[in-house]
Amino acid sequence: MNGTRLHPGRPAPAAVLELLKPVTWFPPMWAFGCGVVASGVPLAGRWGVALTGILLAGPLVCATSQAVNDWFDREVDAINEPHRPIPSGRIPGRWGLAIACAWTGLSLAVAAALGLWVFLAALLGLALAWAYSAPPARLKRNGWWGNAACGLCYEGLAWMTGHAAMLGGALPPAASLILAGLYSAGAHGIMTLNDFKSIAGDRRMGIRSLPASLGPARAARVACWIMAVPQGIVVALLVVWGRPVEAGLVAVLLLGQVVMMRRFLVNPPERALWYSGFGVPLYVLGMLASAFAVRAPG
């Protein structure tokens, strides 16, 4: 017994958990939390809603996207990463597809319980998750479209879902939606950081990630501009909205990112992971500061 299966033909829980990739759940859960903060609704009496929404953002919708991606990448992974759950046989047969479908249905059921706009946001997010990986759309083959889909799902829709859930499923106000959209746009650049590690493989497989299609140096500059410009707009909007303290905080966090971007641009393939570890946390802290700035009185 190697402990990898409960019995022949059925995956072990550990293999299923690996397929769902818990390490990827943090970004949408954080964005959902920013939406909760922006709502201004006191958590007292709403803890159940908040925790259910966090479950929806990470272990359900985001996990679904990971299962879908691994199923449709199983042939490529069999060559490049044969240790992953599906190509290794630890998730045998069509169990990978079954898990992706089951998690899609479970996600929609939970979203429906949280209100109309939460359900619609989850529905759009799941549709993009399938379109990102599954043919014929397979958005991941194009760095512009694929990264846009990921940025929207991981940041904007999760933020909107958090705000809408706390409002009982109602549509969030314009200021919150604008911030969610801007941070979604900036996340496009964050998604590009993940592609520097696989330039050679992407080129061989015909995947037009930005580093593969534009070259490392140009893609890095594009990513930096895409990350920085929306944050600059956020700073300007917060000033206009009469929130100078939060605007100053976001500006300082952006300045810190710019300093690190200069180092990243010297050698993007070698320093993309470094920037992800030290620059991106400043980005998400700015999200939280912005959420407090538009927080409605509770």
TrEMBL record:
<keyword id="KW-0149">Chlorophyll biosynthesis</keyword>
<dbReference type="InterPro" id="IPR050475">
    <property type="entry name" value="Prenyltransferase_related"/>
</dbReference>
<feature type="transmembrane region" description="Helical">
    <location>
        <begin position="272"/>
        <end position="294"/>
    </location>
</feature>
<keyword id="KW-0472">Membrane</keyword>
<protein>
    <submittedName>
        <fullName>Chlorophyll synthase</fullName>
    </submittedName>
</protein>
<dbReference type="InterPro" id="IPR000537">
    <property type="entry name" value="UbiA_prenyltransferase"/>
</dbReference>
<dbReference type="GO" id="GO:0015995">
    <property type="term" value="P:chlorophyll biosynthetic process"/>
</dbReference>
<dbReference type="GO" id="GO:0016020">
    <property type="term" value="C:membrane"/>
</dbReference>
<dbReference type="GO" id="GO:0016765">
    <property type="term" value="F:transferase activity, transferring alkyl or aryl (other than methyl) groups"/>
</dbReference>
<dbReference type="Pfam" id="PF01040">
    <property type="entry name" value="UbiA"/>
</dbReference>
<dbReference type="InterPro" id="IPR006372">
    <property type="entry name" value="Chl_synth"/>
</dbReference>
<feature type="transmembrane region" description="Helical">
    <location>
        <begin position="247"/>
        <end position="265"/>
    </location>
</feature>
<keyword id="KW-1133">Transmembrane helix</keyword>
<feature type="transmembrane region" description="Helical">
    <location>
        <begin position="222"/>
        <end position="241"/>
    </location>
</feature>
<feature type="transmembrane region" description="Helical">
    <location>
        <begin position="174"/>
        <end position="196"/>
    </location>
</feature>
<keyword id="KW-0812">Transmembrane</keyword>
<keyword id="KW-1003">Cell membrane</keyword>
<feature type="transmembrane region" description="Helical">
    <location>
        <begin position="106"/>
        <end position="132"/>
    </location>
</feature>
<dbReference type="InterPro" id="IPR044878">
    <property type="entry name" value="UbiA_sf"/>
</dbReference>
